[in-house]
Here is the input.
Amino acid sequence: MNSAPRNVRNFFLSLSVDGRKSTVETGPVRADGGFTLAIRIRKDGRISDEVLYIDGIAGAGGRLKVISYIRGRADDTGDIVLLSGNR
Here is the structure.
């Protein structure tokens, strides 16, 4: 993360993309807000139906959850790879 958030948010998202001069940094406005991130890839000349979703959910009592799941077919082609552990 390049900088500390100006406002304290329950989730703080930071995205760096090749070719962009600045990092996109954002988060929910409300304390009970959440987010959904959908990542698609180009495959065989079209945008694939395989999607990696990451959801940030603010639950009861302020409990925060981050959930990731794949819609579509995940196979051994290396298109979508899920790993656990330190990056």
Observations:
- The beta strands are 13-15, 24-26, 35-43, 46-58, 64-71.
- DSSP finds no helices and five strands in the chain.
- The longest strand covers residues 46-58.
- The chain has a mean pLDDT of 80.
